[in-house]
Write a structure and sequence with these properties.
By secondary structure, the chain is of the alpha/beta class. 42% of the residues lie in helices and 12% in strands. Strand 5, helix 5 and strand 6 form a beta-alpha-beta unit.
Length: 229
């Protein structure tokens, strides 16, 4: 294990979208960053300087590999649960959603973040670190077609709230970043023009401001976080 004074972050789902934007910003700010993505070819080119560990967060062996990468760097100050699964596209009504798809969404969006947090709690406690769970307005609003994804994010919100109550030395946030122009959002609206949605990079300053603040909050929307230039 290498001891370092550099802050260290682990960002899941960093091959595209918000995860990629967050990882780039953290690297630019001088952080050590461990990243993963299911599509390995994205990571080395898009994130020079990051420790890339390709794989799927639902795979226990991959989660162990992420922990090993963190151990090599010697600390963990920030864990960002960004990897998510939308489910079938077009979004199905609950009456007809395949149950295997439900299980996969919950495995990715709920079980995997909890499992990874469990493994990394010793490092997070030692650093009095921060856990950032990327949520959605679908966790609290009833949108037709969004029942599976939304309920998985509602479960993630509750996990974050309970973790904050159980781990008072940690700072835990569940954050709704708002609609963004991402591949996942396009999959939710196949064939529609989503060019009016903001790019993920526009959300990053609010999320990093929340991390820098260092105080726990309840579930929060990125749009409500004041960013001081």
């Amino acid at each position: 294990m290498t001891q370092t004074s550099q802050p260290t972050a682990l960002v899941t789902g960093a091959g595209r979208g918000l995860g990629l934007a967050l990882a780039r910003a953290l690297l630019s700010d001088g952080w050590q960053v461990v990243v993963d993505a299911r599509r390995a070819e994205h990571l080395p080119a898009d994130l020079p300087g990051a420790v890339a560990v390709p794989g799927d967060v639902t795979d226990p062996l991959h989660r162990e590999a992420l922990v090993a990468a963190v151990d090599v760097l010697g600390r963990l100050d920030l864990l960002i649960h960004n990897a998510s699964e939308l489910g079938p596209s077009p979004l199905p009504a609950l009456a007809g959603v395949p149950l295997d798809a439900v299980r996969h969404v919950f495995e990715t969006n709920v079980v995997a973040p909890l499992a990874l947090t469990q493994l990394l709690l010793p490092q997070l406690r030692a650093a009095r670190g921060t856990v950032l769970a990327i949520s959605s307005d679908a966790a609290v609003e009833a949108y037709p077609g969004w029942g599976i994804y939304g309920s998985s994010k509602a479960a993630l919100d509750q996990l974050a709230a309970v973790l904050a109550a159980e781990e008072p030395t940690l700072t835990v946030h569940a954050v709704d970043p708002g609609d963004m122009r991402t591949e996942m959002h396009q999959a939710a609206f196949p064939g529609e023009d989503i060019s009016d949605r903001p790019l993920p990079e526009t959300v990053v300053p609010a999320l990093l401001a929340l991390v820098a603040r260092g105080t726990a909050t309840p579930r929060v929307r990125a749009s409500d976080v004041a960013v001081v230039a």
